[in-house]
Amino acid sequence: xxxxxxxxxxxxxxxxxxxxxxxxxxxxxxxxxxxxxxxxxxxxxxxxxxxxxxxxxxxxxxxxxxxxxxxxxxxxxxxxxxxxxxxxxxxxxxxxxxxxxxxxxxxxxxxxxxxxxxxxxxxxxxxxxxxxxxxxxxxxxxxxxxxxxxxxxxxxxxxxxxxxxxxxxxxxxxxxxxxxxxxxxxxxxxxxxxxxxxxxxxxxxxxxxxxxxxxxxxxxxxxxxxxxxxxxxxxxxxxxxxxxxxxxxxxxxxxxxxxxxxxxxxxxxxxxxxxxxxxxxxxxxxxxxxxxxxxxxxxxxxxxxxxxxxxxxxxxxxxxxxxxxxxxxxxxxxxxxxxxxxxxxxxxxxxxxxxxxxxxxxxxxxxxxxxxxxxxxxxxxxxxxxxxxxxxxxxxxxxxxxxxxxxxxxxxxxxxxxxxxxxxxxxxxxxxxxxxxxxxxxxxxxxxxxxxxxxxxxxxxxxxxxxxxxxxxxxxxxxxxxxxxxxxxxxxxxxxxxxxxxxxxxxxxxxxxxxxxxxxxxxxxxxxxxxxxxxxxxxx
Length: 540
Ligand SMILES: [Zn+2]
Ligand SMILES: [Zn+2]
Description:
Elements: E1 9-13, H1 24-42, E2 47-53, H2 58-67, H3 71-88, E3 95-98, H4 102-117, E4 121-131, E5 136-137, E6 143-146, E7 153-155, E8 173-177, E9 185-194, H5 200-209, E10 211-212, H6 214-225, E11 231-232, E12 234-235, E13 250-251, H7 253-269, H8 277-281, E14 287-293, H9 297-311, E15 318-322, E16 325-327, E17 330-331, H10 342-348, H11 351-361, E18 368-370, H12 372-401, H13 412-430, H14 434-454, H15 457-460, H16 464-489, H17 494-503
Parallel strand pairs: 1-2, 1-14, 2-3, 10-15, 14-15, 16-18
Antiparallel strand pairs: 4-5, 4-9, 6-7, 6-8, 9-11, 12-13, 16-17
Helix pairs in contact: 2-3, 4-7, 4-9, 5-6, 6-9, 11-12, 11-14, 12-14, 12-16, 13-14, 13-16, 14-16, 16-17
Bound molecules: zinc ion (2 copies).
């Protein structure tokens, strides 16, 4: 999607559900979103980047009950954990909130009241799973049974192991209580429904204008073409945002979670005199881009825009959906131990190598199959073999023979090569093709390697004053290429590129350097330090 230059941009990343630790599957959304934001900033756009912890719903309540602590305590622990992980990985949100905040309660209540006022919410008596032994209703994951669509074992809210369908309360067959294991019964209970069926026509035309990745639009279109069923938006729980006027019901977690995007914007811009949150969410004065995983397309392309439309809010402009992560060809599973924890990973490897791997290993919308082998190959062949090697050879030679950036004019073909890769990189980011982005920049490093070898500066340096001057321009050309690689790879590897930036004699902060700097000739006379190796080989 080409972005209008005159509008501010809000980029959001899917909210992590905070009942467990971060695994590398989570990062498939956060790392590319962070790259996207960093690159837009280099292109001089006005961008804000927000996220926060998703704190409500039954899994957190169940895990609190199992540990004998409160849901608040579970949330606090993992909220802090995710903040630490994002910091360690340099996923640099302008604001990281959580959906149990006072302002999210308030905003959710306001939106639900607006939907009621506009006639999009109605009451209905439904059959809800109830456990006679425990004496309570069993919302969502409190109940397990058979999927009414495919017959597989399913959770109360989703056929998670088989057909993937969202299940409405009361749909599950042969329900069993998750707490005591006994058979549950169905009991009449009043619930509130969102009139999703009224939005079918709106959604069909909205999806035609929605930007982002094709997988998100196509998947959502399939749903709209079939029958859109109204959506039960209340649950019998204590933990959550109270449904207006009802002490016994909270809203379903998928109502208040995306509303977090709005309340986090409010919290971020509180006291900001230049722009207020409603410019983003009420006036259509901004571009809203959601980064999500393919497992929550339905929620972001159907529920969410219908809710926003029904309550009179601005609509998202793009939904970017990343493919899921597998490990050694198998589905991620915490219960089966097929998982790679982020903190364990970061104890052994530099965060930038993980960022690089996630972005370069497969196209953003495709599945990423993680293996230690493919991780080591990428680091060893590309970061150590191509980039690290080039930087080390060129800088060792330059430091030994010049000790500073040499005199001389940069060849026109160098600027042509840089401009070409810059344009490819911009196009790739606009198309959410982050692998292509990395490939374009790495081909510039390749070009540098070839230029260095072809002109054999180690022979030139021995050929008197004239040879040394010629050698100096060759080195300066390659340093210019390194400077460009460094600027363009900063969104992928922010820490390593800051190190490299200093190695080529630059003193500024590479994070705030814009793309115009790509074609500014590197200054002669800047001192070069004795280089150290940027990346370490990984032994299998
Ligand atoms: Zn199913
Ligand atoms: Zn029970």
